[in-house]
Specification:
PTS sugar transporter subunit IIA, sugar transport, mainly alpha, 80% helix
């Protein structure tokens, strides 16, 4: 696995980072939708 150039641990950390940012975006979208529904 050494020749792949990236450690599994580093790969896992980057996946977690992407997952967290996706969750944050998802929550922001939900908040925006709720606000727009209240405004109708």
């Amino acid at each position: 696995m050494r020749n792949s150039g990236i450690e599994p641990f580093e790969l896992a950390k980057s996946v977690v980072k992407v997952g967290k940012s996706n969750i944050v975006l998802f929550e922001k979208n939900n908040e925006a939708e709720e606000l727009s529904e209240e405004g109708i």
